[in-house]
């Protein structure tokens, strides 16, 4: 994976018609072994009972856009501040002009060994008013600067005649593969990701913030999935995007099968990290077009932890597991002139389908992060293999007999 500078990975997708909808399943991107990477559903791994949206991604929620900047450069020995670089930034924009048309939001911190900035204001106000950015741990301040610069360029009154902002930036530690001290994601990289954000199929795996991530002992990174409820249950859409950098290999469960324990003839020992070394983290972003308020969105964010658990995670002491949920159904005005404004409110007694859809989409998003990621060789020649899809198929087929 050599590069002389910043690159934006463009991953074309093959589209497969299934179950009456068009779902992107197989990427033509190949690992360095030559094995094409596939989304988990293309491998026959069907999670839950609800049907994915057309893109099977967070962008199935109308108005939501996603952008990446991927930075891959250098090889060989670590030279702090210089490289090798295996990192990036991923952004999720809830809607156009979210500053003036805020979205209800809620969050849940399952285990707090990490950071997602701005949550205090989200939890206090009950809304989200800017894009969400994902990156590596030491790049949080620079990425926050990029979000602020992008927002100010579009709203020049910020901090002068208008309010200030506290960006939402979530981090995972990519220091195993990346020169994390170098803080190689610049403000320009963040603005590039924001400017390029689109509502189409989301690039997954070794891309953006997921470039240097490791999950369950395999190459991890960005994954996404969605569920669309039938009209009889409201016809709402739930979309999930994750940055997976968590778990140890023996823990991995795929479709109820202990793949991590069966993957090698002699299962690898779960080595504890050395003192001061991160055990990994996961960031989970949930979007929906159901008219949920902040309290209800916090309830959904909590349920994402169940989807995480279904893949084997136990939210270890050193893991940072942060969930943030928002709804695009209602719009909260920036400075309403009237004392009151109307919002559509969802009845708690009808939440169950949305809860189930959140759990299902979270589980599948994590699996997609694993099956779409490619093998990466990072600093000091440290190599993280992508999960072998041939071996994964063999394990699942054997267990199905």
**CATH 4th-level superfamily:** L-amino peptidase D-ALA esterase/amidase
Whole-angstrom Rg: 20 Å
Distance between the termini: 38 Å
Number of domains: 1
Number of helices: 7
How much helical structure, as a percent, in the residues? 10-25%
State mean pLDDT (0 to 100 scale).
90
Which class in CATH terms? Alpha Beta
The secondary-structure element order is EEEEEEEHEEHEHEEEEHEHEEHEEH
CATH second-level architecture:
4-Layer Sandwich
Low-confidence stretches: 1-28
Structural class based on helices, strands and sheet pairing = alpha+beta
Shape, principal axes of CA atoms: globular
Give the amount of beta strand, in percent: 25-35%
The total of beta strands comes to 19
Describe this structure in words.
It is a single chain. The protein has helices at 119-125, 140-154, 187-196, 259-262, 294-310, 352-372, 389-400; strands spanning 4-7, 13-18, 21-30, 36-38, 65-73, 85-93, 101-112, 127-128, 132-136, 168-172, 214-215, 218-219, 221-228, 237-245, 281-288, 320-327, 332-333, 376-377, 383-384. With 401 residues, it is of the alpha+beta class. It has one domain: L-amino peptidase D-ALA esterase/amidase, CATH 3.60.70.12. The strands form five sheets. Strands 7, 8, 13, 14, 15, 16 and 17 form a seven-stranded mixed sheet that branches. Helix 5 crosses helix 6 (352-372). The longest helix has 21 residues, at 352-372. It is globular, with a radius of gyration of 20 Å.
